[in-house]
Amino acid sequence: xxxxxxxxxxxxxxxxxxxxxxxxxxVDPDDLVQEAVARTLRSHTLSELDNASAYLRRTIANLAxxxxxxxxxxxxxVNRAERPDESRSPEYDSDLADLMRVPAEGRAVLYLVExxxxxxxxxxxxxGITEEAARARASRARRQLRIDLEGEQ
Length: 153
Fold this sequence. Notes:
The chain is mostly helical. The protein is built from six helices and no strands. The protein folds into two domains: about 90 residues, no CATH class; about 60 residues, Winged helix-like DNA-binding domain superfamily/Winged helix DNA-binding domain (Arc Repressor Mutant, subunit A), CATH 1.10.10.
């Protein structure tokens, strides 16, 4: 049985890429991973979990969702005050840059299905949705991405 540090080292690269794909642009993916691990370790050791990867991915997706809502409230307040939004960070340079064009829920599904080659049933379980919802999100995200990319040409 692996210890927490070995398990974390094994899981970290995939978790970071997932966080980069689903997290808001304003948040560093490492911060999302760190927060997810810290919250998890408050109540469990990583080695106690049946599927630490799935648990941490779900935590990262939830944290990213919470942060997006917080940033949306911040942007709305800034717009009401008619000040420029200084919180925006530069584009995230990555091979996943095109994926950032898709809403976060669709990004999470596309990342898991297309990049990590996971089946829809597993994606649905990881994100706490039905398999049909995962397929629908992926379809909408692909359509949006196709429209955006065709519009550039």
